[in-house]
Design goal:
The chain is of the alpha+beta class. Helices cover about 40% and strands about 20% of the residues. Helix 1 packs across helix 2 and helix 1 crosses helix 4.
């Protein structure tokens, strides 16, 4: 074994020990290739891990555990970037022989419901079973890469096209017929399907396959959906309201006229009266000064927020480097030649014939109507290009109306969180409500009599910490923390819990 291989082995052991202690999780020798999210390391724990690592290595990128998905990747990062620091750390340790690190037994591609490696066989000749794989690995696979790209280009919707999906739900569940796939996330034994990409008629088939996979592996299946799912096969499902999908349809005939547009018309006019305003499309990388100004707006948007999704820092770095994907378009709104806001839109499928308003950035002191003005100009641009729709994406946490088959306990828990304004989505919702048709979003899960029983580790977490965690712009973690809260409430009376921490 070479010196570098020995250093890499020692680094893996060091990171496993450190992460296990900081995150209070059991990490085994076989977890080197397991994504951090599947180990139960959420965004809150990631910040704790990075803070601990910085005690040894100095300032580190806040996106470190997102760019390096598992302990193996992270070990290579530190060996390549901090070899001298590692040598110092290990020279200070007691000379106790390290236990050998066993190679990861989890294959690159897993087939369900019984997970097995494909043993080098061509995928076209292998037995027809679902495939479970990290999305970034799928794109590098000689056969799966082309399949995923073809399905994505043809069927991409808001869930799959969003810039954040790769971070929120990095795993793929590809149906046995290879006609569609799910983006999903897993933490311990909770599986959350975040997005489906494929034809509508194939959804019941692939939903049945992932349900069987979850039952066989003692996982709890949850699906984030714009449709209220009542059952998968013969298994009844609940559908609990948890958000709104908001779209501007028929943009060819969009107008600011009429009583319903009175408020929007006022806001746009207010911004126009503030000075010389314009919205232009900008091609990333064509002007370094503009790229820096965009990054400055992103920083100003982040400044007042206590928690920022690491995705935002990744997007900022891509823009500064001129590497933003061609899937996205940037629109910049100026007032008197000063940049006021930045809106990033992502293309949807030809069937949808539109775009998703994916990310928007603006400073706190932006004049009234700045964002609304920019959105109206984007609508005019897309309509002139022949598109039919601009989706403003999902707003998570709000409740448009009751659901007849909601999970009563989860629904009650979410209502209490809304009363406490923990989701803090009213500003975003009010912006979007000026424009659009709203469709409810649901958490769909197997009902009690059929769902696989699940027990998450009981955490001691006062309300201020819970509030901090639930305000994160990470839908998967938001959901997982809501599931944890529901279990916590079963042990702690809801009223008592909030009374106890009322002063906070």
């Amino acid at each position: 074994m070479t010196d570098k291989e020995l250093l890499l082995e020692s680094t893996e052991s060091f990171l496993k020990s450190l992460i296990s202690k900081v995150a209070n999780l059991a990490i085994t020798d076989n977890d080197s290739s397991t994504p951090f999210q599947e180990l139960g390391i959420d965004s809150f724990r990631i910040l704790q891990v990075i803070k601990k690592l910085e005690e040894e290595f100095g300032t580190l990128p806040k996106t470190l555990l997102f760019e390096n998905f598992n302990i193996s990747d992270l070990s290579h990062y530190f060996v390549n970037k901090h070899e001298h620091t590692l040598a110092r750390i290990f020279s200070m340790e007691a000379p106790v022989p390290a236990a050998p690190v066993q190679p990861a037994t989890e294959p690159l591609i897993k087939s369900g419901p019984v997970v097995q490696p494909i043993a080098g066989k061509s995928l076209t000749k292998a037995q027809k079973t679902p495939i479970l794989i990290l999305e970034k690995e799928a794109y590098n696979h000689p056969e799966l890469g082309e399949l995923i790209k073809r399905l994505f280009d043809r069927y991409k919707s808001e869930g799959s096209a969003s810039r954040g999906t790769r971070n929120i739900a990095p795993n793929l569940f590809i149906g046995s017929d290879k006609r569609g796939y799910f983006n999903y996330s897993r933490s311990k034994n909770i599986v959350l399907v975040y997005a489906y990409t494929g034809p509508k008629e194939y959804f019941p088939v692939i939903a049945g396959e992932i349900y069987v996979h979850c039952i066989n592996n003692n996982f709890e299946l949850n699906i984030f959906s714009a449709d209220s799912i009542e059952s998968i096969g013969n298994a009844p499902f609940s559908a609990t309201p948890f958000g709104a999908l908001q779209r501007i349809l028929d943009i060819q005939n969009f107008t600011l006229e009429g009583g319903k547009m009175r408020r929007l018309r006022y806001q746009v006019a207010k911004f126009e009266d503030a000075g010389n305003c314009k919205t232009i499309e900008y091609s990333n990388g064509t002007d370094k000064e503009t790229d820096k100004n965009i990054a400055k707006i992103i920083d100003e948007w982040c400044a007042p927020r206590t928690m920022v999704n690491p995705l935002i820092h990744i997007v900022k770095e891509e823009i500064l480097a001129g590497r933003l994907s061609s899937e996205h378009r940037l629109f910049l709104t100026y007032l008197n030649e000063v940049l006021q806001n930045v809106i990033l839109i992502s293309s949807l499928s030809s069937e949808e014939n539109g775009y998703l308003m994916d990310l928007e950035f603006y400073p706190q002191n932006m004049p009234l109507g700045g964002l609304e003005y920019g959105i109206v100009k984007i609508i005019e641009t897309l309509a002139a290009e022949g598109y039919n729709m601009l989706s403003m994406g999902g707003t998570y946490g709000c409740k448009l109306e009751p659901s007849p088959n909601a999970d009563p306990e989860l629904d009650k828990a979410l209502d209490h969180l809304r009363e406490q304004n923990i989701f803090n989505v009213q500003e975003t919702f009010n912006l979007k409500i000026n424009f659009v048709l709203r469709t409810a979003l649901f958490f769909c899960a197997g009902q009690k009599e059929t769902a696989t029983p699940t027990m998450l580790p009981t955490l001691s977490c006062p309300l201020p910490i819970l509030r901090y965690k639930l305000q994160m712009r990470n839908t998967t973690q938001l959901f997982l923390n809501c599931k944890w809260l529901l279990r916590h409430m079963k042990k702690t009376p809801i009223a008592g819990m909030y009374t106890k921490h009322q002063k906070n």
